[in-house]
Specification:
The chain is built from 11 helices and 10 strands. The strands form 3 sheets. A 6-stranded parallel beta sheet has the order 5-6-7-8-9-10. The protein has a two-stranded parallel sheet with strand order 1-4. Strands 2-3 form a two-stranded antiparallel sheet. Helix 1 runs antiparallel to helix 2, helix 5 packs across helix 8 and helix 8 packs parallel to helix 9.
């Protein structure tokens, strides 16, 4: 049961563990102790190896592992004129950490391509589907009105229009370079499933009941003129830093808006443990559409390999709510949302990707 377009039956979220030498060089470069030109050489070599590993594992969606980034989202947003990181992921209890906010200090501009060269390098080194990940535009809404300069944006509607513009510019450039598969990495939707984090959104001035529709409208505006033939997916992340997490709670509070108001082709949903609740919210997926759900059943937070029979059983459980032909399989998140990575090793990572392909092939007859 092969799919003509991505996501593939066996897919993955995007980031991969950095080799130890690259991780050390990246750390040194951040401290100004390693030349950026030499870091680029190491990144190129490591990305070629990562592509070969993904292909050998049987995957057909190939990424660069996000090897050029410090984190999955901060690098992208930091390259926009007028935006910067504000605060950090403060650690909490039980492996939990808090959401990072961003600060907009001036008019948003995209004065340079952001992921264009990274995509071109990836596409030049694989004949399979080159997948580009970028942070969701909702990340720029973190912090609410107080995080956005009133001098630059006395009217927030102008701010929203500028978010749409800079994202459209990047998507247009990626499309012209041949990119046909883009994934938006979004933590805000999933954070709204968590009662504690809903209070964070209240402190930022948002109504948790209203804000999912605001997020959907912003994303829809960004994607409204996406290049013809470009598949768009969204990954809902519950936090993934050094094996820690930020949010818990079933998808029920956001499911109706998520599945019926958001104009994407596929949803990568985290379902690796009880924090995500059950599959019941999948009932909101419109039956008349071609939208697909990618079940994030394997954990990227630890090295323990999930049993094949457990994964197959959970796919069957999800198929009670969504037809099997509209389901795919992936890890719940990337293996390294920051360059330091999660607490597992590269051999464990590879076994998880191979298990992904093995289970997808058994469930659908193909991993593609």
């Amino acid at each position: 049961m092969e799919l003509a377009r991505p996501p593939h039956r066996a897919d993955h979220v995007g980031s991969l563990l950095r080799p130890a030498a690259l991780r050390a060089a990246h750390e040194a470069a951040l401290a100004g102790r390693f030349p950026r030109e030499d870091l680029r050489v190491l990144q190129d070599r490591a990305i070629r190896d990562a592509i070969a590993m993904q292909e050998a594992s049987g995957l057909h969606s190939i990424t660069d592992g996000e090897f050029r980034r410090t984190s999955f989202h901060a690098d992208f947003i930091g390259k926009l004129d007028g935006a910067r990181s504000a605060g950090s992921n403060a650690p909490g209890s039980g492996g939990q950490f808090g959401p990072r906010a961003f600060e907009v200090t001036a008019k948003l501009r995209r004065s340079q391509p952001i992921e264009l060269e990274a995509f071109r390098f990836l596409a030049a080194h694989t004949r399979r589907t080159a997948k580009q990940t970028i942070p969701s535009p909702t990340m720029l809404l973190r912090g609410g009105r107080d995080a956005v300069s009133r001098e630059a944006y006395p009217d927030l509607e102008e701010f929203y229009l500028d978010i749409v513009r800079v994202y459209r510019e990047e998507l247009k450039a990626l499309g012209e370079a041949g990119c046909g598969y883009v994934q938006l990495d979004d933590t805000n939707f999933a954070y709204l499933c968590d009662r504690k984090l809903r209070d964070t959104f209240r402190r930022w001035g948002y109504d948790p009941e209203e804000v999912p529709l605001r997020f959907a409208r912003l994303i829809n505006a960004v994607l409204a003129d996406r290049p013809d033939g470009m598949t768009t997916a969204i990954h809902l992340c519950r936090g993934n830093s050094a094996g820690q997490w930020a949010a818990e709670g079933a998808y029920e509070p956001i499911a109706d808006v998520l599945f019926n108001q958001l104009d994407v082709d596929a949803y990568f949903l985290e379902y690796d443990d009880a924090r995500s609740g059950g599959f019941e919210p999948l009932r909101f997926l419109p039956r008349a559409s071609a939208k697909r759900v990618v079940l994030g059943l394997l954990s990227s937070k630890h090295g323990t390999l999930e049993p094949k029979d457990v994964l197959l059983r959970r796919i069957d459980e999800a198929a009670r709510y969504v037809p099997l032909e509209r389901l795919c399989l992936s890890p719940q998140c990337g293996f390294a949302s920051t360059f330091r990575g999660n607490p597992l090793d590269e051999s464990e990572q590879r076994r998880k990707l191979e298990r992904l392909v093995e289970v997808a092939t058994e469930a659908w007859g193909s991993a593609r």
